[in-house]
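Assess this:
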Amino acid sequence: MTNSQAGRDLDTSRPHSARMYDYYLGGKDHFEVDKQAAEAVAGAYPGIFVCARENRAFMHRATRVLAREHGIRQWLDVGTGIPTEPNLHQVAQSVVPDARVVCADNDPLVLKYAERLMRSTPQGRTTYIEADVNDPESLLTAVRGSEVLDFELPVALSLNALMHFITDAQDPYGIVGRLLDALPSGSALALSHCTPDFDPTTWDKVTAIYTNAGTPVQFRAQKDVARFFTGLDLIEPGISVGHRWRPAATGGDTGAAEPTDAQVSLWTGVGIKP
């Protein structure tokens, strides 16, 4: 599919989760229908803007920690979303210029901006593949076909703010397990997931907004997010609220007031495959 075809396939009649996320981050790649839905979410949960920012910040920190402390040089970023700089591959290659990154999504909107996701350092390599996490076998086949990642060496599987869009009926734990099974010892899982733990009533409202917009969601409690890491060695500090996961890895104090756990409402973690 070409970028022009992707543009024609975009449905602007209904809000879209990736474009709503772009709005939360202050981006410009969204439409009025997305803005209205996003503002409905913000009306129920004003912390959504903080949550989105902290999710990005966690991804940046987790990527740096895996590169610096665990020797990771390859990433598979599934559900990569609309490019928002710095993207994962830019963070990884700022630490290890020879990093190799495959970005995967099944969204025509992301495909439209895929060129941004393929701007690599001369030493490294990046590519974008169109694949659906609900079909992990086809996703893995596409990744192997790209010939960017070496499956004999550790790979970090990055699932940021993705799995709450996979309901239990879609077998989320089976999907993550199948992807991890394909990766060698020393590989990693970096995952973030929205949670109702700190304000269940608010998140019931958010669930209804997304579901009514045509995007089923399932926000999970800490114990259910921890299940994604079954069989992995969690690195410190374990399953933590987003802004509390290795904050020193940000690179300095921004001077901003620390958000509350309820504002962030995001469980995060990184585990290493034995």
In short: The longest helix spans residues 48-70.
